[in-house]
Amino acid sequence: MPRAPRGDPGPRVDDVARMRRRYGAVVVRRLRRWTPSGRWFVGVVRLFMTSAAALAVSLWLLPGEQIGNDALAVLSVAALVLAVGALLRPFLTQLAVFTGPLGLLLVGLLADSVILGIALAVLPGVDPFGVSEIVLAAWGAVVVAAVLNWFFDSSSDEAFFNQVLGRALRRGRGSDVRGPGLVIVQLDGVGVDTLRHAVTAGSAPTIGRWLRSGGHRLRTWHTGVPATTPAGQAALLHGDTHHVPAFRWFDKERGRTVVSSRPDDVALVQQRISDGRGLLADGGVSISNQYSGDAPVRLLTMSAARVPRDRGAAAFMATSAGFARSLVLMVGQMITEVHQARRQRRRDVVPRVARGGNFVLLRGLTTVVLRDLNVALVAEHMAIGAPVIFVDFVDFDEVAHHAGPARPESLRAIEGLDRVLEFFAEVAEDTGRDYEIAVVSDHGQSQGPTFRQLSGATLAEVVDALAALPARAAHHDDRPAETWGPANVLTEAAPGASRLIGAATRTVAVGSGGSGSPEEPEPDESDPLVVMASGSLAQVYLRDVPGVASRELIDERYPMLVTGLVRHPHIGLVLTRTAEGRLRVDGADGWRSLDAAGGVVDGEGTDPLLDYGPFAAGDVLDAAGRAHAGDLIVMGRYDARLDEVVAFEELVGSHGGLGGGQTEAMLVHPADWDVPETALDGRAVHEVLVGRLHQLGLRTEDRRE
Question: Is pLDDT larger for residue 99 or for residue 72?
Answer without folding.
Answer: 72
